[in-house]
Specification:
By secondary structure, the protein is an alpha/beta fold. About 25% of the residues lie in helices and about 30% in strands.
């Protein structure tokens, strides 16, 4: 549908332009009150000047802009123009001395491929008598390709009476073309430096011979210097020159008709939104200040649920700020303000960005004002220098895992948790049904601690250039001061924020007091018309359940099969998307839900022929691995916990509690095994065997799925399974994942598999968790889903595939 709209807009514009051009030769065209500053077009003008042409274009180039222009025809005809835009909203005024004023507002809606705009404005006349009238301009903008733009406006919408005459409605159609952007690799470089446009304006109910038309060109021979030329009917020619600096632009132009000068205009633009400028002063060079704090995850989740867990902070904005610092030519270094970060897998994915900054000659200094823990040092270690506050503390730098077993405590209360599982290492909920840790669980816990410790030690000793034996005492669990860590070689110096900035300024060649900015305050101007959505990224986070995804105050985030399948459908069936990345951050959950998602993955890959690449975050275990195993490629971080190929089912029994409370119960059944579904009694040996048989079938299906998806012999999968969790490097060595890397690596692989050139700028189609209203988040999930989910849990068919992770209070 969208492509048909784009095509219709282009066809209409070309048809009207052709008709206007043919008719123009037959008769003179009456003068229309056009305002032309040079290269303006309803299809291509996307700075503040768009307020006078197409309200749908306004605010696209700069996040905020103030534009002021002065134009002089002669001593009696002088115009002053003022325009201000902030996003898609704008205000403007146009005043002709002693004659006419126009004041208006503008509002734009939509995305970069298709936008709409409306602009109510008031005309005020002072001569021959004071008169006011309200009118409207509406517009649409379509940019289906990086090289093509079309625009359409209707002005004088309600044709009011003004100065005794009916203002005739005007229709303006325009087409813009960027020839260099036809090459995908040049779409955002040279592709933006030559813009051609053609416009035609016609009068409602008028003769085609009254149409006006013009063509324009803008060429940028040097970054920040643009030459413009417009040729209109009646031999109107206008030439202009624009010079751009950091946050400003100056315009000058002159117009003539049949070699007779018409007017001159001068304009100044002050804006947010940096772009290549012909004037860049040394004093404008700067350093970026980027803050990293909170438990990092793929999606931001506020607050904590009553069942545990806590809030998380999306790592995407942090990645974007580091990317902005890398791309910005004025940014010469980065001060990374680290404040108690968490999420080792997400932290690991930030380290290559820091390495890229350093490789580009942009030093990075980490400042740990409040000290920190393992993740803080893991992130800071990737930087050139580390500065910590004088009273900062670094504690609990070792590792500790605790397991508590509740069987005796529950049985004293008269409650028994009945459990059936397949896999010697399937430990989820085992602490509710046993009194001690089995040997298999001890093997996994000890191996987990060993791998995590070795990864941390290897990275930090390499980063800081110190031997492991020098680092070992620091990891014993005591709290260390900044001075202690300086002596150990872990950090470089003790100081305050100004000391960290001084260090960064000297490294960046900007002196002791460099100008510091937040990258969010110096965004890049948007010069490219559009970026095609070539790769879709679908985020799959939370415990897997049937139905819709949820997150409320009573339960932790859940990943609903219906929600995720719908998002996968959209990703695979979006025509512009050539490859899909599934980002998994899930310990597993419902076997049924995992099966439904896994089947959708297989079906969509077969239906569309598009590749799927999986990127694993901190955990992609059990059901999280089930939905990943049929991908073309699987990426995991070194800190990713994955695998846990096993199945379990649990059911509480309150038989002992009811007996203590002397609760009398009458039972009526139709079916020999129906008593086993009740929470009021313990399982008999036959019912336990039935549960074991049911989950055994699920386990065999799981093994078969993994063997087929990973192209592994079933016997090999059986050895790797048993519910065992593997860290990233171990999973790769065992064939459970293909490569070590983060989300960016997975996207690069998806581009390769999808046949997308490496130099083609693309935009990701990102599909994350639907948030819903506050009331839905707070109560909706509990009322509609939680009770139903708990009611289904004891059924033998409701097997679970999940790895609860760790209850380690000091986990990294």
């Amino acid at each position: 549908m969208m492509r048909r709209l784009h095509a219709a807009a282009v066809a209409a514009a070309l048809a009207v332009a052709a008709c206007a051009g043919t008719a123009h030769a037959k008769a003179d065209t009456p003068r229309l009150p056009l305002v032309l500053d040079g290269d303006e077009s309803v299809a291509t003008t996307d700075d503040a000047r768009a307020l006078f042409f197409n309200p749908a274009d306004a605010g696209l180039r700069y996040p905020m802009e103030l534009y002021e222009e002065y134009r002089r025809y002669d001593s009696l005809q002088e115009w002053n123009t003022t325009a201000f835009t902030a996003g898609g909203t704008g205000l403007y005024g146009l005043r002709q001395r002693d004659s006419l004023q126009t004041y208006g507002a503008s509002f734009a809606f939509g995305g970069e491929r298709l936008r709409w705009g409306v602009s109510p404005y008031e005309l005020v006349a002072n001569q021959p008598k004071r008169e006011r009238v309200l009118d409207y301009r509406v517009g649409v903008l379509s940019r289906p390709r990086p090289w093509l733009s079309t625009g359409f406006t209707v002005d004088r919408l309600f044709q009011p009476l003004f100065r005794g005459e009916r203002r005739q409605r005007h229709y303006d159609l325009g087409v813009g073309l960027r020839p260099f952007a036809l090459s995908p690799g040049h779409a955002e470089g040279w592709g933006t430096r030559l813009t051609l446009s053609a416009d035609v304006i016609v009068v409602d109910d008028g003769d085609w011979r009254q149409a006006r038309s013009w063509v324009s060109a803008e060429f940028e021979p040097l970054p920040g210097m643009s030459c413009t030329c417009t040729v209109a009917d009646h031999d109107n020619v206008r030439l202009g020159l624009t010079l751009r600096g950091v946050g400003w632009a100056a315009h000058g132009s002159g117009a003539s008709q049949r070699d007779r000068p018409l007017y001159q205009s001068y304009a100044l633009s002050l804006h947010r939104g940096d772009e290549p400028g012909v004037v860049r002063l040394p004093a404008e060079r700067r350093v970026a200040v980027v803050s990293a704090a909170g438990t990092l995850a793929d999606e931001s989740m506020g607050g904590a649920s009553l069942t545990g867990g806590g809030g998380t902070t999306s790592s995407a904005p942090l990645r974007r700020r580091l990317d902005r610092a890398l791309e910005d030519p004025l940014t010469r270094g980065v001060l990374l303000d680290v404040r108690h970060v968490g999420g080792m897998a997400q932290v690991e994915e930030l380290r290559p960005r820091i390495a890229a900054l350093r490789a580009a000659g942009k030093p990075v200094v980490a400042y740990l004002e409040e000290g920190g823990g393992r993740a803080d040092l893991y992130l800071a270690g990737a930087c050139d220098r580390i500065v910590a506050g004088e009273e900062s503390g670094f504690g609990a730098l070792g590792l500790r895992t605790e397991r508590r077993f509740w069987r005796d405590a529950l049985e004293r209360a008269g409650v028994r948790v009945q459990r059936s599982s397949v896999g010697a290492y399937k430990s989820a909920y085992r602490n509710l049904s046993t009194n001690a840790m089995p040997a298999a669980d001890s093997v996994v816990v000890l191996r987990d601690l060993e791998v995590r410790q070795q990864l941390f030690v290897d990275a930090l000793t390499h980063d800081r250039g110190i031997p492991p034996q020098r680092l070992a005492p620091v990891l014993d669990g005591r709290t260390w001061s900044s001075a202690d860590l300086v002596a150990a070689g872990v950090i470089d110096s003790v100081g305050y924020r100004e000391d960290a900035l001084r260090t960064l300024g000297r490294l960046a060649g900007l002196g002791d007091s460099p100008r510091a900015v937040d990258p969010r305050d110096v965004p890049a101007a948007r010069r490219a018309w559009t970026r095609p959505e070539r790769v879709a990224v679908v985020y799959a986070g939370g415990g897997i359940e049937t139905g819709r995804s949820g997150n409320d105050l009573l339960t932790e985030p859940t990943l609903g099969s219906a929600t995720l399948v719908a998002q996968l459908e959209r990703a695979f069936h979006t025509r512009s998307v050539r490859a899909v990345v599934l980002r998994i951050e899930s310990p597993g959950g419902s076997t049924l839900a995992s099966n439904l998602i896994g089947h959708a993955v297989e079906r969509l890959e077969h239906e569309t022929g598009k590749p799927l690449v999986v990127s694993m975050g901190s955990v992609a275990a059990s059901g999280g691995y089930y939905i990943a195993c049929h991908a073309n490629r699987i990426y995991a971080d070194r800190h990713t916990r994955t695998g846990a190929i096993g199945v379990l089912v649990i059911q509480p029994s309150f038989e002992g509690l009811y007996g203590k409370l002397r609760v009398h119960q009458e039972e009526f059944d139709r079916g020999a095994f129906m008593p086993g579904t009740s929470w009021s009694r313990d399982w008999t040996p036959e019912e336990q065997a039935s549960a074991d048989s049911a989950i055994g079938r699920s386990y065999r299906v799981f093994l078969a799925k993994v063997a087929a998806g990973r192209h592994l012999p079933p016997d090999s999968v059986a050895v790797l399974a048993q519910g065992r969790v593997w860290m990233g490097d171990e999973a790769r060595a065992n064939g459970l994942v293909d490569a070590i890397g983060g989300l960016d690596d997975a996207v690069r692989e998806a581009r390769r598999l999808g046949g997308i050139p490496a130099d083609e700028p693309i935009r990701r189609l990102e599909l994350g968790r639907p948030r819903g209203s506050f009331l839905q988040r707070a109560l909706g999930g509990w009322v509609r889903e939680t009770l139903a989910r708990e009611a289904r849990l004891p059924e033998f068919g409701s097997a679970r595939m999940e790895d609860p992770g760790t209850d380690d209070p000091l986990a990294d």
